[in-house]
Amino acid sequence: MKTLLIVFFVVIISPCVLLAQDLNWNTVTYTTGSLSTGFGSIGTPASTVSLNITGSTARIDAGFPTKYTANPPGSGDDCAVNCALRTRVTFVTIAETVVYTFTFSPAVSGLSFRIYDIDGTDASGDQANVTATGPSGAQNITMTNLNTPPSTITGSGTTSATATGTQGDTGDDQVQVSISGFVNTLTITYANNPANPTAGVRSFSFGNLSWAGTLPVKWISFTGKKQNNGSAELKWITENEINADKYIVEKSKDGQNFVSIGELAVTGGISRNTYSFIDPNPGVGNALYRIKQLDIDGRFEYSGIVVIKQNNELTTATVFPNPAKDFLQISLPGNVQLQRIQVFDASGKLIIQSKNSTGKLDISILKPGVYNLQIENTSGEIFRKSFIKQ
Q1: Which of 44, 90, 230, 324 is at a distance of 20 to 30 A from 24, taking alpha carbons?
Q2: CA-CA distance, 352 to 304, in Å (whole number)?
Q3: Residue 141: inside a domain, yes or no?
């Protein structure tokens, strides 16, 4: 029975142009015979990659899998193009398979490679099946023939694509596989020809893999709120921080020019994380905030913009009478509804707090003196006024 070679190759942009290989067997560390290997954080953009080999692993011959260096340099078989992890298996029954599972964290997009040297007969052949899953579930697989006559491809454009060899002993079938969506798990299953009357020896290899991007941090929410002491509190929730490094809080008064006012380290992981940042001095007027999320590899993206309106000592708030003895009547322009009124003494101690929509405040319990009002309307705007209690 013929010895076969299956290789997962690099991304193809055009028939003559290749992208850089993110998992290059010439540079990664692999121990011959290992069925489980972690390659660490590799590629651009970086992703933590591992490989696990399952299925009929007892049928793998001694000394395999092993790194394979193609030659000569400068040719189509140069290792810069054609390095691989090669496996030789002696199948005993036609139902046996060997399964290679690559995992990526964070998920990668634009994954592309070749499978070649798929043996077959005129009627049927060995089968190479590809599936992939990502954060949103199973991903569609695209398979394209690279030889004439073509192999038999089934399931291209669906979540499970299979290439079956058809050329018999005259040649070996080649297909290109591409997955545009985000992939956490890539599974390639090589099966002995189900129509063959006997099993036999199969040699197959996985070449260099490439990808175009990794799954970015997912923003769940970003909010801001003024605090009773006049500060601004920003809160945000994110997921999938595998490749993230830190968050930089930026502030602007005009919406055009932002400056950094602080940083927070990333918690990390793929689960949901919550962050909080206090700006003690938002300043008079509108304060606009955004978060710059910086990745380990230097890439970054911005959150949306949160606007906090901060009004200090606005003359448009009316307090009557002033001085007052028993009651204060507080009003804002435009018939804006009040939400909360607070009274502080000269030392800053909170004396009265009232959820108040009418604007009428009972101050009869106060001792004579000067007090400070903090008034919040239903839009979250803060107004501050002083009054005298008789």
Answers
A1: 90
A2: 36
A3: yes
Helix/strand/coil for 169: helix
Q: Check residue 123 and give its pLDDT.
A: 52
- Hunting for tokens 């954080």 — which residue is that? 41
- The encoded tokens of residue 256 equal 């055009």
**Which 3 state secondary structure label does DSSP give 333?**
helix
* Torsion angle (degrees, nearest 10) of CA 145, 150, 151, 155: 50
Beta-strand relationship, 47-55 and 152-154: unpaired
Residue span of the structural domain in which 183 resides: 12-214
Cβ atoms within 10 A of the Cβ of 358, count? 12
Q: Are the C-beta atoms of 104 and 47 separated by less than 8 Å?
A: yes
- Strand partners for 332: none
- Per-residue pLDDT band at 310 (split at 50, 70, 90): low
Instruction: Please give the helix or strand (H or E) that residue 80 lies within, else none.
Output: helix 79-82
Give CA–CA dist 262/279, Å, rounded.
9
Q: What is the pLDDT of residues 198-255, one digit of tens each?
A: 566 677 777 788 898 777 788 899 999 888 777 889 999 998 787 788 999 999 987 8
- Eight-state DSSP code of residue 11: -
Contact 9, 114 (CB under 8 A): yes
**Does 16 map to a domain?**
yes
